[in-house]
Amino acid sequence: MNPFDLTGKIAFVTGASYGIGYGLAKAFASAGATIVFNDLSQEKVDGALEAYKADGITAHGYVCDVTDEEGVNATVAKIEKEVGVIDILVNNAGIIKRIPMHEMSAADFRQVIDIDLNGPFICSKAVIPSMIKKGHGKIINICSMMSELGRETVSAYAAAKGGLKMLTKNIASEYGEFNIQCNGLGPGYIATPQTAPLREDGHPFNTFIIGRTPAARWGTPEDLQGPAIFLASEASNFVNGHILYVDGGILAYIGKQPK
Ligand code: NAP
Ligand code: GCO
Questions:
Q1: CA of residue 147 to ligand 2 center, whole Å
Q2: Residue 236 within a domain
Q3: Is 5 part of a structural domain of the chain?
Q4: Is position 72 within any domain?
Q5: 157 belongs to the catalytic site
Q6: Ligand 1: does its nearest atom lie under 6 Å from the Cβ of 210?
Q7: What pTM was estimated for this model as a whole?
Q8: Which of 112, 194, 203, 241 is most buried, most CB within 10 Å of its CB?
Q9: How much is the pLDDT for 222?
Q10: Where residue 33 sits, what CATH number does that domain have?
Q11: Residues 146, 113, 19, CA angle at the centre, nearest 5°?
Q12: 210 inside domain
């Protein structure tokens, strides 16, 4: 028996048209799972369906905003009717706004919290009843270095990702008895569209992160695939409320000493 096998499982990865979510969905598909994802526009969903098809994956895409509770509930009901009950939920959809806090509007702060923290609450709440009925479930919340650390200009994002760490622990605490495991995956700095502005040629942050990462490189979505399969599979059935950091060693490292 291969404990990492996802054959027969239905994985719903939010915001998985590209970036980390797309990478995780590909990994789950390679382990045998059926892939379901959502995005904000039909255009993005259609584009992603083509990309999945080109990668040999028959995915199921839905237009849904993770902050819209009615829309999420309707989408989960549609998925259950059209594909089947969700076994694995990955709360991946997220945004960041890099604005000095004293210049950030309350509306901007609220929007980040809404998508990055309220969204995972809404999506988890939508899938848990069927997971309880089915007798098992996996919820994986995509946390961040900012679940543990702060930095200039990302106050809303850090507050959301810190909250997501505790929401992860609380879901684990409240639903562990139903054989539902809720864990976090905490990527370090990963090369995706979200971090593209930080990786522009000569951007000081690019040099900073490479010096702050023992692996001395940016991560890729592929670096997250193995850890995500572990958290989505039977191999992690007694792992609950844990944040698995996949950061190349950032959280262990004080930073490269000046030469
Ligand atoms: P990304 O490239 O910006 O992709 C984010 C995805 O989420 C996009 O598909 C986006 O769709 C979708 N999305 C945004 N708001 C949504 C909403 N309200 N409803 C549904 N979908 C929505 O980001 P990423 O780098 O792949 O990051 C994915 C997750 O990993 C995020 O939670 C991020 O905070 C986290 N993370 C990223 C890094 C990193 O270094 N990249 C590190 C740690 C954690 P649209 O394109 O339609 O907007
Ligand atoms: C930033 C980056 C980070 C990454 C990630 C690190 O501006 O600091 O966007 O926040 O997205 O969350 O784990």
A1: 10
A2: yes
A3: no
A4: yes
A5: yes
A6: no
A7: 0.98
A8: 112
A9: 97
A10: 3.40.50.720
A11: 60
A12: no
